[in-house]
Write a structure and sequence with these properties.
Number of helices: 20
CATH superfamily of the largest domain: DNA Cyclobutane Dipyrimidine Photolyase, subunit A, domain 3
Bound molecules: flavin-adenine dinucleotide
Number of strands: 5
Strand order of the largest sheet: 3-2-1-4-5
Helix content: 40-55%
CATH topology of the largest domain: DNA Cyclobutane Dipyrimidine Photolyase, subunit A, domain 3
CATH class of the largest domain: Mainly Alpha
Strand content: 5-15%
CATH architecture of the largest domain: Orthogonal Bundle
Oligomer: single chain
Radius of gyration: 23 Å
Length: 464
């Protein structure tokens, strides 16, 4: 049987891999990872994410070595590299897993055309979502536009098993050393463990998942899975995690709240799939607002306090703690992300794309469609049907979800001994803290929110 090239992108594992499995069904597989210009551009945008991805590539190379196989690494244009490799091993087919953001969809379509012109067959497989977009075509065949309608269909959908591929091509090609350019960035930053990804899944499914409902909205505790970074590079498979959670739900001895927690965690995975299918069926999950009426809404491109937002110095503790957590760890608690996003879009009136790109510089879990989908949702320009933007009051949210200030004090040491309630009183400009360096709130949230709403209403009214 002729050899098959499998091109890795953000699916960096061997086990439970639908793409590899499909490739192995066609012939002995040669696994390939190519660092092309587009990938280098994303690496340059976020050196910490580059270091994370390349560590995962090292881990994948190690996984292959252990089974006596090589991961072939190349640097250069993907088309030329794949054509050369196909000639060298006499392969006729190239397989990869589908990507969903418009830029990658476009690049993959161009690459497919180039390879087909060169006489190669290309297969693209849905591996990243739990449920492939085409499996849930929605009421009119163009996917779902509302998460509320999508999620019941998703919960009913079959999740197929993906046995591990075990047919490899024996050849004497060598992997080029992968680039070291990004290794030295931020040595103090602790990168998620790409060597033992299954341990992270086992640890979460082994216990904490059963309290997910109760604990996932409390930023001070580790109540969510933290699996986002590993999912974003495919070091673990969302479909594999979902299959295990579904199996767990069949346990008749579960308490009602444990069952509810498992279901809520599945809902989170469904949200990831929702944005993928939205982008698959409609390339608007890119740089344009999904809602047509909001495409020309005059969001600002800058603001005198934008840098204060970026660096965690707005004087609103929940917002600042979130931004500092992101910078320090590459991850921000999901609930805090909403408040932080609301603040930049509504309090500051700044364009959601600027907020999204700021997150992307620091986050390990930078998944383009999830990032864009969530930022559009947060800015009130996305695919949901909310009548008005959801403007979070950062002070009330802090009081409700971090009542004793444990989370904000962890990230804002300046507040270690301060009374949060008096700090948050928004007494503008008052030097409440004497020698302290942490600022008073930069403005009145109420007034900023009212001003934004007035502009929002006027815009919607003008659009009819
Ligand atoms: C403004 C904003 C920006 C975001 N940017 C990103 C991003 O760049 N990349 C990213 O993967 N997620 C993003 N999210 C979604 C979510 O916050 C993260 O997936 C989550 O923080 C990851 O932490 P976790 O793994 O502990 O999540 P858990 O709560 O344990 O959820 C498990 C998994 O479900 C998925 N998930 C959960 N919530 C969402 C959601 N709202 N949208 C999509 N998938 C979800 C993720 O894959 C997550 O790892 C963003 C959310 C907001 C509000």
């Amino acid at each position: 049987m002729p050899a098959v090239l499998f091109r890795y992108t953000n699916d960096l594992r061997i086990d439970a891999h639908r793409g590899l499995q499909a490739a192995a069904a066609l012939g002995p597989v040669l696994p390939v990872f190519i660092i092309d210009r587009a990938m280098e551009a994303t690496f340059a945008r976020s050196p910490r994410r580059a270091a994370f991805v390349l560590r995962a590539v090292d881990a994948l190379s190690g996984d292959f070595r252990r089974i006596g196989q090589s991961l072939i690494i190349r640097r250069g244009p993907a088309g030329a590299s794949l054509r050369r490799l196909a000639r060298a091993v006499d392969a006729q087919t190239v397989v990869w897993t589908a990507r969903y953001d418009p830029a990658s969809q476009h690049a993959d379509a161009r690459l497919q055309a180039e390879l087909e012109e060169a006489g190669l067959r290309v297969c693209s497989i849905h591996d990243s979502p739990v449920v492939a977009p085409e499996a849930l075509p929605g009421p009119a065949g163009g996917g779902f536009r509302s998460f509320a309608a999508y999620v019941p269909a998703w919960m009913q959908a079959e999740v197929d098993e993906s046995p591990t591929a075990d047919r490899w091509l024996a050849c004497d090609l060598h992997a080029e050393p992968r680039p070291q350019d990004w290794d030295a960035t931020e040595p103090a930053l602790s990168v998620p463990d790409v060597e033992h990804p299954d341990a992270a899944v086992d640890a979460f499914l082994g216990g904490p998942i059963l309290q997910y409902s109760a604990r996932s909205k409390t930023p001070a505790v580790a109540g969510t899975s933290h699996l986002g970074p590993l999912l974003s590079i495919g070091r673990i498979a969302a479909h594999d995690v979902a299959a295990r959670v579904r199996a767990r739900m069949r346990d008749p001895l579960l308490l009602a709240e444990e069952r509810a927690s498992l279901a809520e965690f599945l809902r989170s995975l469904a949200r990831r799939d929702f944005f993928s299918q939205l982008a698959w069926f409609s390339p608007l999950i890119g740089d344009e607002a999904y809602q047509e009426k909001m495409r020309d809404f005059p969001f600002a491109t800058t603001h005198p306090h934008l840098d204060a937002w970026r660096t965690g110095m707005t004087g609103f503790p929940l917002v600042d703690a979130g931004m500092r957590q992101l910078r320090a760890t590459g991850w921000m608690h999901p609930f805090v992300r909403r408040v932080v996003a609301s603040f930049v879009c509504f309090d500051l009136g700044v364009d959601w794309r600027i907020g999204r790109d700021e997150f992307a510089r620091y986050a390990f879990d930078d998944e383009p469609v999830s990032a864009t989908g969530n930022w559009q949702w947060a800015a009130g320009v996305g695919a949901d049907l909310a009548q008005f933007p959801r403007i979070f009051n950062p002070t009330k949210q802090r009081a409700r979800y971090d009542p004793d200030g444990q989370y904000v004090r962890r990230w804002i040491p300046e507040l270690a001994t301060e009374l949060l309630a008096s700090h948050e009183s928004e007494q503008l400009g008052l030097p409440l803290f004497g020698e302290q360096t942490y600022p008073a709130p930069i403005h009145s949230h109420e007034r900023a929110a009212q001003a934004f709403l007035a502009r929002y209403r006027a815009h919607r009214a003008a659009k009819g």
